[in-house]
Amino acid sequence: MRQFLSAVEMPERGIRPVLLPLPAICTDSRQRCFYVEKKFANQTGFDIIEVNRTEKYDEVQGMKYGELMAGLGRKGPGHLYLLTGEESYYIDKARERLLGLLHCSRDEVQLFEEGAAASEIIAAIETVPFLVEKNVIIVRAGSLFRDRKTEGEKAGTSGHRRAEDRLLELLQRLPDFSYVIFEYHGRADKRKKLYKAIQEHGQIMDAEPVRANNIGDWLQGRLQELNKEMDRHAYEYFVGAVSTMQPVNLSFLSRELDKLALFLGPEQRRITREHLLQVFSEVPEISSFAMLNAIAARQTDRALQLFRRQLANGVYFALLAGMLARQVRLWWQAQSLQSRGVQGRALAGALGQPPFIAEKTGREARSFPAGLLKSVLLALSDADYGLKTGRGDAVELEAAIIQLSTRGAGGV
């Protein structure tokens, strides 16, 4: 099991607030990278990362999407890339940008999927292009970058290993007419020889997953593309709604913003909270966020109305139960943190939320009686189990909503 911890800011150590799996890599205030070995607890009860400053890890860090785009704007495309990470949206965007700069249509791309032999990739790289100016090769063989060996790799013949070694040599001196783009949707194993070869002779983009607490850069860039801007209330509402998405689906959000831009037209640049409510009202995540807001505001009838509307629109019961359980867990966590003296925006690091949302979560958490959130969370767990065993019912979730919105005064 991977060990996770919450790190709070310690100015004397120069460490940022983060949520990290151990072991991990951390950056200090001077942008230096260090290996995180272990954790210890300080007097406030927070887990703090302890950093081994003897070993730097700058060389293992792939560039971010924005850095890749900036480099392409300055220097143009190179011959060798690895597009990897857990955020498919950025991988897709980077691929399309590279193909555009290479003036290559999809019909001209040579695509190798999982299971492609190294010898086939070598042949495609070395073959002189015919009727086109260049070879553009995309390789989606995830087994080349996974952090565990597949059965095929374990049983690989000497000929297979020789072909892989030959591919590694070829990547060090690619022909001028060949461009190779490797893709891996996930965390690539940086110990792989292929990863190290691309790192040395090409460029690696690491597409980290986007969460509500770091979506600002993506949103700003997308709004600039659409020639739009959000006022403060719209931004806070949007980020709050995104915080209910697990995981955040950037492709979906991008399409919804396109719809909003069409709805507003070119003349209306500023997006308000009312515009979001008009256009996004039927989006499940927005309805879920509105339901949570109604619960926090003690609006029982509205919360139940929004819950039933989502069921009528086909939203699966288990998704609603999971979303509500996650929010109850956040409220409960905020209660616990505030009881230990952590208040306001200082909750952000531990809750994994933007500061203004964490502050709101803290205010809401204080309104719940002691013990209520725990009992509701247990009831939601029972409801989820009942659903998976064929005995679940929406009434159980409605009872939890009533308990929360009446602060335990509604009965069950």
Structure commentary:
The protein is α/β, with parallel strands linked by helices and 412 residues long. The protein folds into 3 domains: 3-57, no CATH class; 65-207, P-loop containing nucleotide triphosphate hydrolases (Rossmann fold, 3-Layer(aba) Sandwich); 216-405, Zinc Finger, Delta Prime, domain 3. It has 17 helices and 12 strands. It is elongated and about 75 Å long. Mean pLDDT is 80; it is low at 1-60.
The biggest beta sheet, please? Answer: 5 strands, parallel
Name the overall outline.
Answer: elongated
The structure class reads alpha/beta
**Total count of helical runs of at least 4 residues:** 17
Question: Strand tally, please?
Answer: 12
Helix content: 40-55%
- Could you state the oligomeric state of the chains shown? single chain
Name given to the CATH architecture of the largest domain: Up-down Bundle
Question: What's the Cα radius of gyration?
Answer: 25 Å
- Tell me the strand percentage band: 15-25%
Q: What order do the SSEs take from the amino end to the carboxyl end, as H and E?
A: EEEEEHEHEHEHHEHEHEHHEHHHHHHHH
Can you lay out the helices and strands and say which pair or pack?
Elements: E1 3-7, E2 18-22, E3 24-27, E4 33-41, E5 47-56, H1 65-75, E6 80-85, H2 88-101, E7 110-112, H3 118-126, E8 135-139, H4 151-154, H5 158-171, E9 178-185, H6 193-201, E10 203-207, H7 216-226, E11 229-230, H8 232-242, H9 250-264, E12 270-271, H10 273-280, H11 284-296, H12 300-312, H13 317-339, H14 348-351, H15 355-365, H16 372-388, H17 394-405
Parallel strand pairs: 6-9, 6-10, 7-8, 8-9, 11-12
Antiparallel strand pairs: 1-2, 3-4, 4-5
Helix pairs in contact: 1-2, 3-5, 8-10, 8-11, 9-10, 11-12, 12-17, 13-15, 13-16, 16-17
